[in-house]
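Issue: copy button drops trailing tokens. Both records pasted manually instead:
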Amino acid sequence: MELLSALVLCAILLSSSAQSPPSVVSAECNDTEKDAGVALDLINKHRRDGYIFSLLRVADAHVQHVGNASIFYFTLDVLETACPVLSRKHWETCGYGPLFGTSDFGRCNAVLYIDRRLQRERLYGYNCTMSPVPPKLYECKRCPVRITVLENVQQYVPEAERILEQYIQKSNHTNRYKVDQVMKVLLGEADRSAYHIEFTIKETSCPTIKLLTLVSGCQFLPDREAVSTDLHKVY
């Protein structure tokens, strides 16, 4: 992020006739919450996997005024929602999973350029670090069901493919779908064990009518043409 800030500053110096660069000043976090939301929306649009982040709070904000434009330097505390990034929804429209305590939380540093006169918004760069909620924070000793977030989700890809086949048989899609990514697997333990699996699927180039075609050989359509969705199942 320091390198990114330096590059932004160099660009300002080269394009400005001023003798000294515009100063970077502290900004009130509450006053910049709307602009922070814009930055987070652009971050989510740029990402290609995982869940959409929602804004918990603006942890820190600085601003640099350059002519009619402003450059914001944000530190944002974020929480993942139940919406995969493939849904391309706005973060404010996304809710949280049935087990709120199992959502990952983290922090994003972002540099946002805004020219309000030209109605131009540009994300110069960002970096996000996410961490799972420590089990002790959501562990409920008196609850009838104990929830565990499983780490090795790739071993559940075959189960996701089996669930997808059941979904396809009940749908009327023109093209076949294939598992794109297993997002999260939860283990619930009580009198018996149950798994909650969340994964995304994407449309392929193989027509559904070709039933004998192995879906593993089907290629995903480009993102701009493919239809994507998310599935979750308890088994």
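Record 2 (pasted manually too):
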Amino acid sequence: METILQTAEDVISPYLWGRYDLLVLPPSFPYGGMENPCLTFVTPTLLAGDRSLTDVIAHEIAHSWSGNLVTAKNWEHFWLNEGWTTFFERKIVSRLSGEDARQLSCVIGEADLLESIDFYGKDNPLTALVPKLDGVDPDDAYSTVPYDKGAHLLYYLEHLLGGPAVFEPYMRSYIQTYQGRSIGTEDWKSHLFSYFTSNDSAKVELLNSIEWDKWLTAPGMPPVSNYYDERPQKACLALADRWLNAASDCAYDQFLPTDIEEFSTMQR
């Protein structure tokens, strides 16, 4: 846990909450984690024994910045909590386990996003990144959309604007600017433009070229697809297919521990 927290500080900024602890709750706890400041509640199902679910801890630790330090002013802007946190989580995972692990998480996240949008319907307004929730119970709008559609947008912006060397100083400025405040998407967007106007004005033309309404208020999948490296996923699927094919005649002696020797924890 200490390593994850230190990595999060390297990615984002110094941790300002003093103490950080995890409290494992009884099996009746209905969530993977709940990001209370200083003390994250987690489900006992995270104690898998192989550290395969440490990305959940990375996610909850990342909430110490996005969600707790800077938080959405209401449920319509929930992506500012969860989209940013998912984006931060994957950056932390990349530092700890390599870029392949991040790419696999992105591929899985995009599949989860597609599943949510198929469930709601691609024209359902609740699949917008910033949905209108007047008269709507926020529980009815809860899905992976703010998580993965939000992270998809931030990944897109990072690559559009020049990669991590350009984007990471901006994201640190965003946290520093709004820490201790509740904000909306309009505040986030205003700071994005203000930051690049002051620090790299050539990027403003790129920002102006973005179809913001399609990204923020239109339902359905994002208007632009990201390219994710699918090789980590394909390696898993290829091995799974070998196991399925071997089942017909129980030819399992062909499999060796070395088959997964170079797999990340998430691949395993």
